[in-house]
Amino acid sequence: MKIERVMRHEISSADVYAMASTKEYQERKCADAGALSWDVQVDVDGDTAVVKTKRKLPTVGFPSLVRKLVPTGLTSTETVTWGPLDADGTRTAQLHVNFHGAPARMHGTIRVVPTSDTASEVRVDADFTALVPVVGRKVEQLAAPIVISVIDAEEKTAQAWAAQGY
Questions:
Q1: Residue 119: exposed, middle, or buried by beta-carbon count in 10 A (0-12, 13-18, 19+)?
Q2: What is the residue-averaged pLDDT of the chain?
Q3: Which residues touch 106 (CB under 8 Å, ≥6 apart)?
Q4: What class does CATH assign to 2-163?
Q5: Angle of CA points 39, 110, 89, to nearest 5°
Q6: Contact assessment for residue 161 and residue 9, using Cβ atoms and an 8 Å cutoff
């Protein structure tokens, strides 16, 4: 299932990348999304970065079919591999999310695109796949809103982060 989201920020694309490549922001993102626990690793190497976030989300509010697949919570590892800055100020990352103990995965890209000197958009374009015979498509339809809610929580966290002047 295709997952597409656009998050708008009133900070530059360089500031969005700087924010996204800090451990403190990643930890706040997990807390704001309601994660029960998390472990964040950030490795910045010159003009690139790899951000690896393992988090466990509660299944309260999940559809019953999804809760049956992950009754004790959903643990995922998100790896975002940021490439170098493009000439137009855009930065692209490869996104990989593995769901531990659940037959699902998500792969795609994240692009930070400047819309002005002081504003930018973050565009998420990913494919979420449930690897469950017969009911895989149904699981995708039920789980996609959960994935989108986590992305939406990240947008709110980024806006609060920027408003506080980090």
A1: middle
A2: 88
A3: 3, 95, 96, 97, 99, 126, 127, 128, 129, 147
A4: alpha beta
A5: 115
A6: no
141: DSSP letter? H
CA 5, 8, 13, 19 torsion-angle sign: negative
Question: Can you give the C-alpha Rg of the chain in angstroms?
Answer: 16
| Structure tokens that stand for 54 in this block | 């393992």
Alpha-carbon span 160 to 33, nearest angstrom: 13
- Which pLDDT tens digit goes with each residue over 68-105? 666 677 899 999 999 999 999 999 999 999 988 777 89
Which residues face 95 on adjacent strands?
Answer: 80, 108
